[in-house]
Predict the 3D structure of the following.
Amino acid sequence: LLSGPRTIIIEDPLFLDGEKLGRGQSGKLAQGGTLYLVDQNHPFTLTFSLSSKAQDPNMPRRSLKATDKTNGGRNGTQRDIKPSLTSKHSIKDFFSSSPSKAKHGQLSPESRLPEGKRQKLEEEEEERIIEDKLKHLQEFAEKSVTDESKDDPSPSLVRGGVRSSWQQIGALMVYTAEGVTGSSKIAGFDIDGCIITTKSGKVFPTAPDDWRILFPEIQPRLASLLNKGHKVVFFTNQMGIAKGKLCPEVFKSKVEDILAALQLPVQVFVATGPGIYRKPVMGMWKYLCEEANDGVTVDKTQSLYVGDAAGRPENWAPGRKKKDFSCSDRLFALNIGLQFHTPEEYFLGWKSAPYSLPSFDPVSSVRLSDPPSASLTSTETEVIVAVGYPAAGKSTFFHTHIIPKGYVYVNRDTLGSWQNCVSACERALKEGRSVAIDNTNPDPESRKRYVGVAKAAGVSCRCFHFTATLEQAKHNNRVRFLAPLVNL
C-alpha cells in the first residue's frame, strides 16, 4: 500500500509540497514528499515503504518516519516524532495493509464479482481507507505534540513556557525562535545578501534550498552579540508572497533552516507585501518595540542595523561591479535613527563605501514661503490659484493656512470638472468672498480661466507655486497612501 505516487482525496485544508489543497480537492504525494498538517503548523516528510505483499522475515523492515520541522530540536532542527496516539500504536499502524485485501488462500465475497467491477470496488475502498488514515495522522500529530510537552518539556520549552512559533499580523509574519528574549539592545539584520546568498550564484534563488551563509564570520559575530546582551532580529521584505510567487509555508521552512544552520535564537520579521511593514517604512520596527520585545524598552543608541541595500554605486569596491538595487536598508535605519553598516563593513571590517540617497530629504527644513515676508492671505477679496504636482502639499497648505481665514475652497476632485470649478469661483466672488483654487493648473490655459474670472469681478489674482520636486511629490504620495493605515 502506498508504495509509489498515489492520488489521494482529502477533506481538511492541507498542503502537499507547498501546494494548498482545499476540502474535496485531490493531489499527488510521492515518496519523499511533504505533508503539512494541523493548520499548516506541522510539516511531515513521509516515506512510503510498506507493501500489501508479504515481507521476508529475514529482511530488515523499513519504518515509516515523520519528521516535525516546526517543533523540532533547537531552533527548528528535525527530530523523529516519538509519542503515539496510544501506548499500543505507532505511526506505522496508520499505514498498515488494507483490510479489504483478501488473505492468501481465502476467497472474499468480492472475488466472485466480475474483474472490472471488483477492481473498481477495491480502488474505492482503498481511497476511503487512505482518507481515513490521513485524518488519523492529523490527530496523531496533535497528540504527539501534547504528549511530548508533558514527557520532555526542557528541550522544546523556554523561559516563560514559550515555544518557537510563527505569528501572522496582516501583511507581517513574525517568527520567534526558542531562546529569544527581550532586550534594550537590538541588533537588526536583513536576510538576503546580508545573512545568506545563493549557492547557485544567481541573483535570485532557483529553489527553496538555494542558499548558503554569506560569510563564515557571520555566525560567531551574531553569537558574540547575543553574549553581550543584544537581541538578534532579522527584518526582510518578501514581496513575492503577496504576488503569489512564493508560498508562505515554503519561506517559513527556509527561515527555520537558516536558523538551524546558525544554531542561534533569532527573531524574524517578514513583510509579505506593500504597506506599513515594508522597509524602509518603520512598521516592522514599531511592532517589535511595542508588541514583540517582552515589554522591554529599546535603546536606539545601543542598537544597530545591517543591510546590503545601501545605495552603493557601480564598482563601489574591487570586484563589486553591480550597484545596490536600492537604498531601502540604509533608509530603514535612517528613519528609525539607528547606526547603519553594510555586511562587508560589519562582518569583514571593510572601510565605508560611497553611497547616494534620494535627492529629496524629508527631514530637511525649508521656508514655508518665499519671500518669507509675503502675506499668505489678504483683507481684500481675491483669487488664489495653486500650481504644483499632485501630492506637492497644496491641499494641506490651503486647509492649514488659507481656508480658516474664510476663503472658499474650490477643487476639481470634489466638483468633477474645470467648468464646475469656474462656476463656483464666479458665485463666491459675486458674494464678495475670496477663493482658493486647489488644482494642479500646470499650463497657462488652465490658469487663464481663473485670471479671467478675477478680472471680470475686478479683484486681484495671485499664483501660489508649490516648488516640491517630482521626487518629493512621489515621496509624499507614498506617505499619503500609508497615512490611513497607521500614523508613522
Remarks:
- Residues 6-11, 49-92, 94-105, 148-161 have pLDDT under 50 and may be disordered.
- Residues 7-153 form one domain.
- The two ends are 58 Å apart (CA to CA).
